[in-house]
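Weekly puzzle thread! Below is a chain. First person to post its structure in token form gets bragging rights.
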Amino acid sequence: MSRTVVVVNPWAAGGRVGRDLAGLRRAVEARLGAVELVQTTEAGGGAARAREAALGGAARVLSLGGDGTHHEVVNGLMEAGRPDVIFGVLPVGTGGDFRRTLGVGDLMGALVAIAERPARRVDLGHATFVDDGGAERTRWFLNLASCGMSGLVDRLVNTSSKALGGTASFLLGTLRATARYEPARARVEVDGALLGELDVTVIAVGNGRYAGGGMHFCPHAALDDGALDVVVVPHARLPRQLARLPALYRGTLERVPGALRARGAEVRVTCLRGTAWLDLDGEAPGRAPVTFRVEPKALTLAGAPLAGSAAQAARPGRPRRPEGRYAS
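Winning reply:
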């Protein structure tokens, strides 16, 4: 394997990544050989560093940070137009949701998976939406996109300290958003067919399965099936919304009365009333109207589960972990 670049978010894990770069380099190189570390220095910097690495001839670009960093790096690679570059995640951030679909528990588990599993082609999601200023934008997503209350959760979590860790931070954000959210009425179409028009809590569109620090939105999603899994959860009064939280973590949202489920290559959400806030891989770049579509086999992913597997990959064995504090 020729040149490997690791795009590092030094603010991940509450800033611990930046304070322990030397130890992290040792851990990565012990498994993967020599790497080049490049740090992000500004919001959105992961995309710029990844694009520069790809255009500079890197064979492999890895993202060391949280789901937001992975999101930026993937967008940078797609902008570079080099589908042959191998991408991989080294998870150390707050949510840790994409690693759950990969079946790895922490940074060291991800390193083992990248070292031992063959890289292969997987799908990506693409979103066309409206930003907060009213302009049309496009962006790729690696894991899971949604709109409704979920985008409001992102905004609350991303402006908090996240000191409680991923699961607790997103649970607290969800409780705060539940008390504030004014339900949007949305029209949802999948591959041109009307799925429904209803007041929504969330419309989840999964390439991966998890979001919000372990919330199991799309348990049937697979990274290589050429489709997006869709779950639409209708709005309900506060007590009923709170009663749904266990289903959200268990992966049984589709059993909620009135919920709708579908699979397709394109999902269009039109907001008929109110605001359906957008979430892309834990980032909150805008709102509906939004069109989600799948791009089959758009990305070469290191550490991916076995091809064709609809189930979560088995966790690889883990060696002794000098970076145990980065585990989720």
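Puzzle host: Confirmed. Bonus trivia for everyone else. Residues 310-325 have pLDDT under 50 and may be disordered.
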